[in-house]
Specification:
Length: 144
């Protein structure tokens, strides 16, 4: 029996690089009522040459099997995501955590947005980790 190839959001440890043409599919995944794990969206920053302000490999390692991590590919993808996610998007290097059960009309604070300071990304990684553990129903850990 052959198995269908997995789609991007089904590959747990891999980083999902969200391109402009995938913006609608990503938004559908955010608002998918069957999604049981948090989804983390990492935006890029012009101040970092169009790259994330934090180490996405470190974030993926911290997320483990608790969440899927996605990064916005470029400005075109960021604009497309803003169109589909409205007030629940992320930009300027910030990171958004989408809890399971997300709906388009949810207040922005139901899905935490963490601002990343280029000089201190470890602080943001700690905040994201704490939000992730709470969203996954696990108590936050102490400082790393």
């Amino acid at each position: 029996m052959t198995r269908a190839a997995p789609v991007a959001h089904d590959i747990a440890p891999a980083l999902w690089r969200v391109e402009e043409v995938q913006a609608e599919m990503f938004a559908q995944r955010v608002f998918d009522p069957s999604r049981s794990r948090p989804l983390i969206l990492v935006s890029t920053s012009r101040h970092a040459g169009g790259r994330p302000l934090l180490d996405t490999d470190d974030l993926r390692e911290r997320a483990g099997d608790l969440a899927q991590v996605a990064v916005i590919a470029d400005d075109a993808a960021s604009w497309a995501l803003s169109k589909h996610l409205d007030h629940l998007s992320a930009y300027g290097g910030a990171v958004r955590l989408y809890r399971p059960g997300a709906r388009p009309g949810d207040p922005w604070h139901h899905h935490p947005l963490v601002k990343v300071e280029a000089a201190r990304p470890q602080i943001a990684l700690g905040q994201i980790s704490a939000h992730l553990r709470l969203a996954a129903g696990r108590p936050p850990r102490g400082p790393r």
